[in-house]
Task: inverse folding
């Protein structure tokens, strides 16, 4: 049972109201909906500072950093990334594929970017050159490992650029990235 429900009548989220759960079993169907929040204490537990600190300081290569960040689901371990997606449970945050429809999502992803940046800064020269995992999410369907030369593939959200151009917050994307975290 959600602790808070609301219907948005104005702004960019205005059309998101009164729709049933996602109509497709794979979660990819068109499905505008209400903003419903139900704070999930189990997923929130893995987003606390001690987990984030351990993620940053105990994982010395990109494979393990990314594995722990995302979570090791077969082992029942949620990472701080997945934990954040599901902390604000309900719709759309509880539906992984439409979580960007909730403004809280953008705050969460700013945190993910900040954690990655802090991790990178511990060995910047090396970590600007490291990528891990395959080209498909959860390797489904199975695909080859990604490289810095692969294109980002963000579709309508952004121009296709090489992953290597997105690695640095201080000069990436041809100098258009210019930010640090304090």
Result:
């Amino acid at each position: 049972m959600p602790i808070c429900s609301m219907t948005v009548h104005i702004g960019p989220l205005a059309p998101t109201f009164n729709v049933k759960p996602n109509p497709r079993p794979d979660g990819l169907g068109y499905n505008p909906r209400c903003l419903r929040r139900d704070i999930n204490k189990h997923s929130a537990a893995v987003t606390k500072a001690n987990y984030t600190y351990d993620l940053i300081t105990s994982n010395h290569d990109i494979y393990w950093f990314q594995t722990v960040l995302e979570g090791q689901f077969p082992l029942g371990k949620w990472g701080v990334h997945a934990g954040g997606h599901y902390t604000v449970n309900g719709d759309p945050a509880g539906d992984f594929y439409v979580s960007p429809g909730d403004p809280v999502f953008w705050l969460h992803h700013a945190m993910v970017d900040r954690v990655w940046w802090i991790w990178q800064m511990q060995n910047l020269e090396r970590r600007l050159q490291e990528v891990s995992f395959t080209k498909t999410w959860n390797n489904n369907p199975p695909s080859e490992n990604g490289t810095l030369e692969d294109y980002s593939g963000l579709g309508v959200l952004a121009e296709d650029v090489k992953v290597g151009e997105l690695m640095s917050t201080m000069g990436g994307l041809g100098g258009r990235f210019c930010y640090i975290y304090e």
